[in-house]
Amino acid sequence: MRILVVDDEQEMRKRLCQTLRQENYMVETAQNGDEALDKITDDSFDLIILDIMMPERDGLSVLREIREEGINTPVLMLTALGDIDDRIKGLNQGADDYLGKPFSMSELLARIRAILRRGKERNPVLVCGPVSLNTVNRCVFLDGAPVTLTVKEFAILEFLLYNKGRVISRFSLAEHVWGDNFDPFTMSNFIDVHMKNLRQKIKKEGGDSVIRTVRGAGYIIDEPR
Question: Which residues of 142-160 are buried (b: 16+ CB within 10 A; e: fewer)?
Fold first, then answer.
């Protein structure tokens, strides 16, 4: 599951990212409304956590714009504690839920699980050739046979499947899987090692891998040629 966290407070973004990644969610961040709109229109997410009080373009204007564009991604609004007017405006403009600051991370996770449960009508299974990945129960199959992946291998495969048919750069892949803990100077070979192991696990005997390397650009997952 992919979540976009939008908040202008750096410390809050870091706390949210750490908590969500510990729960095996894939997390991207935006520090203002304009950056959030760029990411929302360019990519797909399962949930957006959106702070209302941001300078220049606030969360309500971001919410209004994405709903006008027909983007129905669930949105959890973060509001100042007791600010009833903003909560009402957010719900009227298409927010799925709200949470007042300060809040406990356990409550946040409970709200997220509830929102994602309500959105289960979306197909949770991502498929490419003989490979299928269930984003809900986190199971992976190769031609119907279960495949055991490490946490990092699963995260790599899930991110590539969400972006099926698109070239993903090494930097984008590292940013999504390792987050702020990734050091490109000391950990660059981590991607190669995990990718090699993942390819071996999801490749049919005698067949081509669904993951291809695009020289100088990154990786792409697509139907086998």
Answer: beeeebebeebbbbbbbbb
Q: Give me 42's structure tokens.
A: 């360019």
Which residues does residue 131 pair with via DSSP β-bridges, in sequence order? 128, 142
Strand intervals (E) in 90-173: 97-101, 125-128, 131-134, 139-142, 145-147
Confirm if 45 and 2 have CB atoms less than 8 A apart: yes
Higher-scoring residue by pLDDT: 63, 181: 63
The tokens describing 138, both together, are 């986190």
Domains in the chain with CATH codes: 2-118 (3.40.50.2300), 125-221 (1.10.10.10)
Coil, helix or strand at residue 217: coil
CA distance 160 to 87: 35
- Angstrom distances, CA of residue 51 to CA of 4, 62, 90, 145: 11, 10, 11, 42
CB–CB of 55/12 below 8 Å? Answer: no
Q: What are the distances in angstroms from CA 131 to CA 96, 142, 190, 218?
A: 32, 5, 23, 20
Segment 140-196, tens digit of pLDDT: 999 999 999 988 898 889 888 888 888 888 887 887 777 666 676 666 788 889 999
| 188-201 vs 151-162: helix crossing angle, rounded to 10 | 80
Confirm if 86 and 60 have CB atoms less than 8 A apart.
yes
pTM: 0.58
